[in-house]
Each structure stands twice: as C-alpha cells, then as structure tokens.
C-alpha cells in the first residue's frame, strides 16, 4: 500500500492561497487519541484532492477535511496529517480519521480496486492505532453518506475480521470494581477479543 503525499497547506483564515512550505500545518489542532475511522464519499464522480480542498475552504474550513482520499483507480492520497483533527463529521472529528472515496455512491457502485484500497488502508490504520470502530458518516450524522450503494457492512466485516494480533492497543490500569466486560467496553471490543 502506498500513500501519496499531497503537500496541502491549511490556512487559519480559510484563504485560498496554496503554500507549499508547510508553515501553516501547525494551524491544525493535534488529535489526542484516534479511536474510530469514518468513511465518506465525495458525492462527486471525479472529485480530486484539490477539488475537495477548494470546496472545504469555500465552506470556511481550513482546507481538505479528511485524512485520506481514495480515487477510483485505488490511489490513496493523504489529506490532513493523521495526528490532526479533521473536519469531516461534526461531533466526532476530535477522535476519528476520515477517509473519503471519490464517487457518488447514491448513484454509482464502488469498484473492486477502490474497495480493496479502502480495506488495506483501514486495516493499516486499525493496526497502527488499535482502532476497533469503523462507521459510515450516515451512522453518526443525518446524511446518506457514504451512499446507499456503498457496501459498509462488507467493509467493516472484512477489515475487523482480518486485524493482526500485533496491534498497537492503549494500555489500561485496572481499577477497583472493574470487570472484564467494562474494560472490554472501554476498548469497544468483546471480552473474548480482550482475552
């Protein structure tokens, strides 16, 4: 899997100038903990990283709100740095990574190459950050995103059933009155998986 760097910059004022020296990256707030992946579609058949970056600036954001964009040919482009708060799902940006797929899955179907790239990226991020939760935007907000034709259940099942055992889980200090169930719930997993 290859992630293509885009060298986007993020202006505090939402200005439209593109600056390639990264001075403005520190305008983005750092994410404390990554606990979820949220999947989106661009709702546009051929939207590029630059298109979405421009659209988000026009909406008043500092630029590309997602952490990644996957094109129909399976190319994975980095948007916001992984360690920064996104602008893709209000109320959930502080602890989630946003992945956007090129296309409008209300009227199109995701192709096999793009779907495989998404699954690889999700597995990589889940293993890297100890993530156990993958959601479609529509599961968290009032929207149809990532589209009625998007195979969300298939993606979740494929990714979560194939995660490695060498995952980067957070540590947990057991407290008095903790149960295995309460500890497992804090990591959003089953007791069997915790053991």
Shape: globular
Q: Supply Rg.
A: 17 Å
* Coarse structural class: alpha/beta
What assembly state would you assign to the polypeptide chains in this entry? single chain
CATH homologous superfamily assignment of the largest domain? Peptidoglycan recognition protein-like
The level of helicity is 25-40%
Give the number of DSSP strands: 6
Q: In the CATH classification, which architecture of the largest domain applies?
A: 3-Layer(aba) Sandwich
Pick out the low-confidence regions: 14-26
Could you give the order of the helices and strands?
EEHEEEHEHHH
Q: Give the CATH level 1 class of the largest domain.
A: Alpha Beta
Describe the main β-sheet briefly: 6 strands, mixed
The main sheet orders its strands as 1-4-3-5-2-6
**Overall mean pLDDT:** 84
The number of domains? 2
| Beta-strand fraction estimate | 5-15%
Distance linking N and C termini: 30 Å
Counted by DSSP, the helix tally is 5
CATH topology of the largest domain: Lysozyme-like
Features:
12% strand, single chain, Lysozyme-like, six-stranded mixed β-sheet, alpha/beta, 195 residues, Amidase_domain, globular, 6 strands, 2 domains
Task: Give an overview in words.
This protein has 5 helices and 6 strands, in the order ββαβββαβααα. It is of the alpha/beta class and 195 residues long.
Brief rundown of the structure:
InterPro entries: Amidase/PGRP_sf, Amidase_domain, LysM, LysM_dom_sf, PGRP, PGRP_domain_met/bac. This is LysM domain-containing protein. This protein is of the alpha/beta class.
What's the topology here?
Layout: E1 3-4, E2 36-41, H1 49-58, E3 68-70, E4 76-78, E5 96-101, H2 112-129, E6 134-136, H3 152-161, H4 180-186, H5 191-194
Parallel strand pairs: 1-4, 2-5, 2-6, 3-5
Antiparallel strand pairs: 3-4
Helix pairs in contact: 2-3
């Amino acid at each position: 899997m290859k992630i293509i760097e885009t060298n986007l910059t993020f202006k505090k004022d939402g200005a439209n100038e593109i600056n390639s020296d990264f001075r403005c990256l520190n305008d983005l707030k750092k994410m404390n903990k990554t606990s979820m992946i949220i999947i989106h579609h661009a709702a546009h058949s051929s939207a590029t990283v630059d298109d979405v970056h421009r659209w988000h600036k026009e909406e008043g954001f500092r630029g590309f709100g997602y952490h990644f964009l996957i094109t129909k040919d399976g190319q994975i482009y980095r948007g916001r740095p992984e360690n920064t708060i996104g602008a893709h799902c209000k109320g959930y940006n502080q602890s989630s990574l946003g992945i956007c797929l090129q296309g409008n899955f209300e009227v199109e179907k995701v192709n096999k190459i793009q779907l495989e790239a998404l699954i690889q990226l999700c597995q990589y991020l889940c293993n890297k950050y100890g993530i156990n939760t993958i959601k479609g935007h529509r599961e968290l907000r009032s929207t149809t995103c990532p589209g009625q034709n998007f195979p969300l259940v298939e993606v979740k099942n494929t990714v979560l059933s194939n995660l490695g055992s060498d995952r980067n889980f957070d540590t947990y200090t057991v407290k008095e009155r903790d149960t295995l169930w309460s500890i497992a719930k804090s990591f959003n997993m089953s007791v069997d998986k915790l053991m």
